[in-house]
Structure formats: structure tokens, C-alpha cells
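Please check the following for our workbook:

***
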Amino acid sequence: MNIYTYTILTYALTAVISFAVVGIIVLVGKITSKPADLEKEE
């Protein structure tokens, strides 16, 4: 595996983890702050 392939894979993995963490934080924030607004789907 050359350095470019490793760099691309590492960057992609970091991006996926970042988006997953942000998504979890947003979901937890919605559930804990306003559970009644989940049905509205604004």
C-alpha cells in the first residue's frame, strides 16, 4: 500500500467518523431538548 492510498483511506475514515459523531450529537440534542417536536419533521 503506497502513501497516497493510505492518506486517502485515513482521510475518508476520519470524515466518516466525524459525520457519525455530529449526527449522534444532533440526534441526542433533539431527543433530549424537544421530544414533542420529533413528529413535526420540519
